[in-house]
Structure formats: C-alpha cells, structure tokens
Write a structure and sequence with these properties.
about 300 residues; alpha/beta; about 35% helix; TIM Barrel; 6-stranded parallel β-sheet; two-stranded parallel sheet
Length: about 300
C-alpha cells in the first residue's frame, strides 16, 4: 500500500471562486483534482482561503466566498470529510481542514476571527506578501514583526484553537509568535534558507525553535524557494526535507505542496498523483518506512489534532 499523504497547503479555493474550479473536472491550469488525490493516496488536505489584493472585492467578502466554496465542495463530494483527531487514513475518505492565508480577511476584527472559527477555520497566516495591520511579511521591503493588533489576534487564536501559520511571515514576526503563542506554531509551506536564500525560506534557528515548540514545517514545491534552476525536481524537495530534519528532527517535517498556488511545478511532481514518487525518493535518501510515514502524513495529523 502507498503511504498516506497529508498536504499542509493548497490554493484550490481561490480557483474555485475566480475560475470555477471543481474537484471532479479539470479547468484552466487547475492541479488539485480528486482523481489525482485518490491516485496519490492523499488522505489529509488543507484548503486555504487566500486574500487577493488585486481584486476590488472587499477582503471579508472574498474570505466568506471561499468559505462558501469549501462548504459546497464538501457537500458535493462524499469522499471528503472534515478532519477529526481520530480520523483513520486507512479508510476511503479524505480529511480536509479550512485555513486562511492572509489575515486581511478578518478586517482587523477579533469578532470576524471568531466567526471564521465558527465556520471551520483552524489555521491562519497573518500576512501574504505585503505588510498589513497585523504583521510584517517575509517578502516586504520593510521588515517588521507582529503589531499590537497582531499580538491581540494571536492571543485570540490561541484561545479559540486556531493554529498560527507563519509561512509568509517575516523573521521577526515568527520570533514574536514563538515568544507569545501558548500553542505550537507551524509553517504550512516554507523551505530551508540554508539551501535557497529566499525570505520565504526559514533560517536554521527558526526551524529549530518551531520544532522545539512542537510545530511542523511543510516543504513546498515552488522552484524559486527550492533551487537556483528554473525547474525544480523531486530531488530538490528531498534536499530541503533532509536539511529540515537534520535541524529539527524527523517529527517536525511534512509536505506543503502549494498546489494551485503557482504556474510551474517540479518536472517529476506535477500533481497529487505523484506523491508516491516523492515517498520513494525519501526511502532512497535513507529514511526508513516509519520515518517516511511520519513525514508524509502523521506529523501533520499529530500537529492538527490539537486544533479540532
């Protein structure tokens, strides 16, 4: 049997809102597709509500529209179920978790955060690529940490049980979150800066600190955060996994594909059907089957269990 797969990040919901993506019918450049997920044995998928600053639609409306897409997706696909801590990946269901990528959708309101939590959101990144009222972004020119409102939002996330996702957050923002958060934080789709010098990749000290707190780091498949080459490959992903494990241990690493969030994919890992090839590459790199199982599925399952 192939390893069960957990994927900490995809942007399918934005495609569902803007382009009419449907899990059962491929459209445009869509990658997240139910047959691909089933072929690759994907058993846990996080679906992000991504705020697009280029749209005229207000942030809250964008967020609620994508939540509606998520709810309709679940209603129309009996194979999908909300993730629970006792979910069994050996069955025929795929567990899902709703997340937010870009805290702008809360429009500075703790009440909106509480409503999103009621609607099923269990993790949130405070920023995307630009600084906002909550925090500084990794890709922004002016680096800053969490604002006073961001600190207040984090405390409310802790109280509610919404995981703090620090992918896209500035280094200082991550350090602030590590200091303040009473729950382990995680990075849904971030790589190792020691191997690729990008602000979106994590330096070794932050990898270590996230791991020590009990968090996980999902390695993404985006070439500019994996390699100097125009195209990435599975071996590049494996290098980042090996490095993160060498710093934080085998329990701190997972997958965070970023499917449907980029236009070019690794030449030998183009969609969810190719996850078994990544697992085989991890075995070839020296991990045993139990370790691959943890990286591929159980580390993310364990982490998320405290928020459902």
């Amino acid at each position: 049997m192939p390893f069960p797969i957990a994927d900490a990040h995809c942007d399918f919901l934005y495609g569902a809102m803007e382009y009419g993506y449907d899990l059962n019918t491929l459209r445009r450049e869509q990658v997240v597709h139910l047959p691909y997920m089933q072929k690759g044995n994907v058993k846990l998928q996080l679906f992000a509500v991504w705020y697009d600053q280029k749209l005229r639609t207000p942030p809250l409306q964008q967020g609620l529209t994508m939540v509606d897409c998520y709810k309709r997706m679940l209603a129309g696909n009996p194979a999908l179920v909300p993730f629970t801590r006792d979910f069994d990946p050996q069955g025929d269901k795929i567990a899902t978790v709703l997340t937010i990528e870009g805290g702008e959708v809360c429009e500075g309101s703790l009440a909106m955060l509480r409503i999103f939590h009621e609607l099923g959101v269990r993790a949130m990144t405070m920023t995307w690529n630009e600084n906002n009222e909550l925090a500084g972004a990794a890709m922004a020119r002016r680096q800053k940490g969490l604002t006073l409102l961001g600190l207040e939002m984090l405390r409310e996330m802790n109280r509610l049980g919404v995981a703090m996702d620090v992918s896209h957050l500035s280094d200082q923002g991550i350090r602030d979150a590590l200091e303040i958060s009473t729950c382990p934080i995680f990075a849904s789709h971030s790589n190792a800066r020691a191997l690729k010098d990008s602000p979106r990749c994590l330096p070794d000290d932050l990898i270590r600190d996230i791991a020590l707190q009990g968090g996980v780091i999902g390695v993404n498949f985006y070439a500019p955060q994996l390699t100097e080459n125009k195209l990435a490959c599975i071996d590049d992903i494996v290098r980042h996994i090996l490095h993160i494990v060498s710093i934080g241990g085998v329990d701190c690493c997972c997958f965070g594909s970023d499917f449907d969030g980029m236009s070019t994919y690794p030449k030998d890992l183009k969609n969810g059907a190719d996850f078994p090839a990544l697992c085989q590459a991890l075995l070839k790199a020296g991990f045993n089957e139990e370790q691959v199982s943890r990286i591929a599925y159980w580390n993310l399952h364990r982490y998320l269990s405290q928020f459902v």
